Inverse folding.
């Protein structure tokens, strides 16, 4: 079993390496989109079960700080239960599980949609949504358990102890964060699917031209420790030289040198896509030259 797991991990690392560098002639930063050869256009449905599991884990983990520390426990007995050392230990253990499931969700979202932006929105929705639901349930339970107690936001400044109003306000912040992610997610998914559909169509039906990487300009920016570049690719169409510009994201050890062979895919509607021609091999800049600075 250990050998199988190690083999799977090596396969995933190799697959990740083969997708970089990533080029885009239309988008920048987290909107740059990838479609691995042989993969289908991404779908959201396979991610929904993991999204719900991650949100539920964050809700369970958040019950301890919201209930025991922020005043959202409906009764003193539940407050003591949530603050018990055993409960806290369970919550800490669940926190690590929640982080692991959320990281897995992020990775699967990148596999499906090839885009950091979409993956980040899925992860944000899992964390913020789970904590917001937890805070909302505890607040509603608390208010219905003691309907005589007024809900007054001024208590945040005047109460000698941590009031439930503070927990409600923090929960509202997570709810706003989750709402923003939820509203942005459909449009981001649609954008990623359009880009993947274009790449899929160009690989199947577009015109392919051999190109050469003529300019590699470092932007002195990093996205999640990935250095960002602007590049130019030269190619010839009907005997006439042409140049196309693109953004490039890669790892510090996979920055192709000027002169690297490229593929330029295009159609009659002005849609273009460029990628490294791996069939001719590739030469990369020395490792560490573009590594992200510490801190």
């Amino acid at each position: 079993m250990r050998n199988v797991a190690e083999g799977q991990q090596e396969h995933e690392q190799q697959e990740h390496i083969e997708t970089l560098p990533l080029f885009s002639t239309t988008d920048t930063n987290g909107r740059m989109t990838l479609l691995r050869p042989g993969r289908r256009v991404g779908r959201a449905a396979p991610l929904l079960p993991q999204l719900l599991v991650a949100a539920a884990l964050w809700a369970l983990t958040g019950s301890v700080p919201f209930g025991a520390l922020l005043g959202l426990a409906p009764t003193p007995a539940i407050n003591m239960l949530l603050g018990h050392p055993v409960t806290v230990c369970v919550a800490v253990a669940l926190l690590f599980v929640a982080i692991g499931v959320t990281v897995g969700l992020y990775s699967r979202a990148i596999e499906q949609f090839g885009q950091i932006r979409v993956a980040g929105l899925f992860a944000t929705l899992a964390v913020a949504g789970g904590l917001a639901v937890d805070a909302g349930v505890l607040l509603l339970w608390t208010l219905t358990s003691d309907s005589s107690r007024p809900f007054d936001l001024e208590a945040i400044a005047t109460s000698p102890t941590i009031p439930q109003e503070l927990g409600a306000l923090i929960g509202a912040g997570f709810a706003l964060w989750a709402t923003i992610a939820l509203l942005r997610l459909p449009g981001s998914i649609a954008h990623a699917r359009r880009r993947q559909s274009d790449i899929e169509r160009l690989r199947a039906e577009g015109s392919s031209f051999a190109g050469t990487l003529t300019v590699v300009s470092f932007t002195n920016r990093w996205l999640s420790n990935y250095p960002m570049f602007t590049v130019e690719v030269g190619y010839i169409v009907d005997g006439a030289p042409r140049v196309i510009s693109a953004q490039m994201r890669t790892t510090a050890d996979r920055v192709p040198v000027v002169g690297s062979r490229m593929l330029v895919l295009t159609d009659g509607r002005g849609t273009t896509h460029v990628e490294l021609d791996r069939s001719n091999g590739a030469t990369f800049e020395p490792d560490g030259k573009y590594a992200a600075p510490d801190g």
Summary: The longest strand covers residues 207-223. The chain has seven helices and six strands. Residues 33-200 form one domain.
